[in-house]
Task: inverse folding
């Protein structure tokens, strides 16, 4: 294992230990309630970036995948009382399948056409779920949390830790893709699809792979949300805000490196949580918009791009 | 050394037709390219030269006809599989991977196209890449971003990237367009040295001295049809070729 990988896994372990310790020492539920949302957005942004960042295919369908994750959990819980782990695993499988299907249908389209197709997908799926009585239809459905498992004291704490596990999983996958031949292939096809294809890169297969992985992670991130809110309804589960927020987080953080969406999600997610408590939840969207405009103008390659530029300048200045 | 005429062709194009809507860009084109040949492709603008090589490299699907490479029908194969079978190309307007360095551009080819059964270590691939860059005179630019290259360097990098796919057949699409005469000589020498290593090359070029000097055999296209094929002097002496170029 290289030094970088070793540091990464030590960091990941420390992070998980810290979250576990938090659930044991902090009695107040609110921090977990707030941090859960941030963790959820880290998973979504990292997942989005695998297709949107590495491959450059801007996906507006985050809310479709997220919502499918939510409703997979709702369905499994209502129909079979399935435990949380099963809900997440099945959601990931469905997300992978959906990603594959969406990819086959749309990945031959490029640029804006692909993005529009993903928005259409969201609307189709939301309409379908809205008309599905078994999972509550338009009125939504109440969920009764099962008893919590040891060592956790409350269900929210457990969900918080589960989401932290998903964060580590998502980042590990994203990091692996970035550093492997897949990452190089995706970067090549993002730069120039025809040149990539003529250099031997199986562009369609790589894009499908990115879509499958991205979809699976997004659905997995959505699965615990039903239990988190103890309620699910189509208009919030499939809210287009997820798509826009996740896109903003990835772009603000920077898409050239796996750390970009993580930084973006923490920054924007934390800001949103702060604003929700101090001012109002409506201001969120405004702040999101302002930050996005600001970054597009000042740092089009996001925070990661900005850091790289500063470093390069310093190196050239020194040399 | 002239290629043996009795040998089986490396590439056989039979009755190839390509239409864009109502416009026929290639009309029933058939030609054989022999192993080791240096083949020149000329023709006025819009005569179908680039369309033909797009059909060979797989960027375009054809309406009719077949492309057979080393006794295998590749007419329906996507470009990346043709690349892996040994067909490489450069582009008329260079298409580098802009977010990468020169070295990384070549690594894409080594990672994806030059696949062999035996395991090749990262160090070995790095050596292969550096030796290609050295041959192309780009060794000092290995860690430079592709966006920082000059026009002639970009052309060389395209050829280097094509070479990194380990081709048996190289298509050079106007690799010399827009270069100064000394740069043209430089690129021409490069292509000549590649041809000496058993790589069959099709060269599309508007610079007549270059393509005449390079080619063992030449073909002239006009309005999607072959109007002449033969030795360079035969083709240039052809009445229809002169008409096509002079427009009389």
Result:
């Amino acid at each position: 294992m290289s030094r970088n990988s070793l540091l990464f896994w030590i960091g990941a372990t420390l992070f998980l230990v810290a979250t576990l310790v938090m659930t044991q020492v902090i009695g107040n539920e609110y921090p977990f309630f707030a941090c859960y949302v941030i963790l959820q957005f880290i998973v979504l942004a990292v997942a989005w970036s695998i297709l949107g960042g590495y491959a450059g295919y801007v996906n507006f369908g985050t809310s479709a995948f997220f919502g499918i994750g939510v409703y997979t959990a709702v369905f499994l819980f209502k129909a079979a009382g399935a435990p949380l782990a099963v809900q997440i695993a099945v959601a990931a499988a469905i997300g992978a399948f959906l990603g594959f299907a969406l990819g086959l249908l749309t990945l031959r389209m490029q640029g804006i056409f692909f993005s529009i197709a993903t928005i259409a997908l969201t609307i189709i799926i939301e309409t379908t779920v809205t008309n599905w009585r078994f999972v509550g239809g338009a009125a939504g459905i109440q969920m009764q949390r099962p008893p919590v498992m040891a060592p956790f004291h409350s269900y929210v704490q457990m969900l918080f830790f589960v989401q932290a596990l998903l964060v580590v999983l998502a980042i590990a996958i994203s990091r692996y893709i970035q550093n492997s031949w897949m990452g190089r292939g995706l970067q090549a096809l993002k730069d120039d699809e025809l040149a990539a294809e003529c250099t031997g890169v199986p562009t369609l297969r790589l894009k499908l792979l990115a879509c499958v992985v991205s979809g699976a992670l997004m659905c997995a991130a959505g699965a615990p949300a039903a239990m988190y809110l103890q309620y699910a309804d189509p208009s919030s589960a499939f809210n287009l805000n997820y798509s826009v927020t996740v896109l903003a987080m990835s772009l603000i953080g920077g898409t050239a490196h796996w750390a970009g969406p993580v930084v973006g999600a923490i920054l924007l997610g934390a800001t949103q949580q702060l604003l929700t408590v101090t001012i109002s939840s409506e201001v969120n969207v405004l702040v999101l918009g302002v930050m996005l405009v600001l970054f597009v103008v000042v740092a089009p390659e996001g925070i990661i791009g900005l850091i790289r530029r500063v470093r390069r300048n310093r190196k050239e200045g020194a040399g | 050394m002239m290629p043996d005429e009795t040998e089986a062709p490396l590439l056989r194009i039979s009755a190839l037709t390509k239409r864009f809507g109502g416009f026929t860009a290639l009309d029933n084109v058939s030609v054989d390219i022999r192993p080791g040949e240096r083949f020149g492709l000329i023709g006025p603008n819009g005569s179908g030269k680039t369309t033909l090589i797009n059909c060979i490299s797989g960027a375009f699907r054809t309406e009719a006809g077949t492309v057979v490479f080393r006794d295998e029908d590749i007419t329906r194969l996507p470009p990346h599989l043709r690349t892996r079978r040994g067909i490489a190309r450069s582009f008329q307007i260079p298409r580098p991977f802009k977010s990468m360095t020169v070295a990384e551009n070549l690594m894409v080819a080594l990672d994806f196209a030059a696949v062999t059964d035996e395991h090749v270590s990262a160090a070995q691939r790095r050596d292969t890449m550096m030796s290609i860059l050295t041959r192309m005179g780009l060794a000092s630019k290995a860690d430079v971003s592709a966006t920082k290259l000059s026009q002639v360097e970009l052309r060389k990098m395209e050829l280097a990237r094509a070479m990194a796919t380990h081709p048996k057949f190289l298509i050079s699409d106007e690799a010399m367009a827009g270069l100064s005469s000394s740069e043209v000589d430089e690129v021409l020498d490069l292509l000549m040295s590649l041809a000496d290593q058993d790589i069959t090359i099709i060269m599309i070029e508007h610079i007549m001295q270059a393509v005449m000097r390079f080619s063992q055999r030449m073909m002239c296209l006009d309005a999607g049809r072959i109007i002449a094929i033969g030795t360079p002097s035969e083709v240039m002496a052809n009445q229809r070729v002169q008409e096509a170029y002079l427009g009389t």
Chain B has a mean pLDDT of 89. Chain B touches chain A through 29 residues (CB under 8 Å).
